[in-house]
Amino acid sequence: MSRSVPSILLVNPWIVDFAAYDFWNKPVGLLSVGAALRDAGCEIRLLDCMDRYHPALAGEAAARPVRAVPTGDDGSGHFPKTILDKPQLLAAVPRRWGRYGLLLETVRSLIASEPAPDVVLVTSGMTYWYPGVQAVIACIRERHPGVPVLLGGIYATLCAEHARRLSGADRVIPGEGERTGLEAVAAITGLRIDSSRAADAEPFPAPAQDLYPVLRSASLITSRGCPFRCPFCASHLLTGGGFKTRSPECVVREIESLFREKGTVDFAFVDDALLFRKEEHFLPLLKLLAGKQLPLRLHAPNGMHPSWIDGETAVLMRKTGFRTIRLSMETVNPDRLREMGGKVTAESLKEAVRRFVEAGYRPAELGAYAIMGLPGQPIAETAETLAFVFSLGLRISLAAFSPIPGTVSWDEAVRTGLIAKDADPLVSNHAAFLALTRPAEYGRYVKLGTLAADGNGMLKSGIRPMEDRAFRKRLSEFT
Ligand code: B12
Question: Domain with 35 in it: what CATH number?
Answer without folding.
Answer: 3.40.50.280
